[in-house]
Fold this protein.
Amino acid sequence: MHANVAAKEPTGAAQLVTRIYAKLLLTGFALVPAYLIAYLYFFQDPSLKFENHAFHELAIAAATLEGVFVTYVCWRCYRLSGEPLLRWLTLGFLGFSLVYALHGAFTGMAHHNIWLFLLYGPASRLTMSILIFVGQ
């Protein structure tokens, strides 16, 4: 026994509702950081401080290991395909990982020399951005 079912094309109204829903969903997800910032602004005491160097070092170590893994995957893909963009992606992730590791290494020195700590976070993202931009 075979059952062949043909689906009807959705109506114009259904397509319109679906498109509006998709745009609202995308807008809602895009505004999640704004919701969190507004929550902190309105409901948190500004004098409260949270400082946990061990957690920050652990988070940076995890991000660095993820960067190294993505670097390895990009390098393997580059070796297989030879595509130039993958070479620059590999270099971008490698540069990010190396510079960002210094950001984590200087976490403990944040009270003594804040610039050693602050410099390497944005510098790692700049390194990656420049290398990916060159690859395009």
About this structure: Residues 12-43 form one domain. The mean pLDDT is 87. The two ends are 55 Å apart (CA to CA).
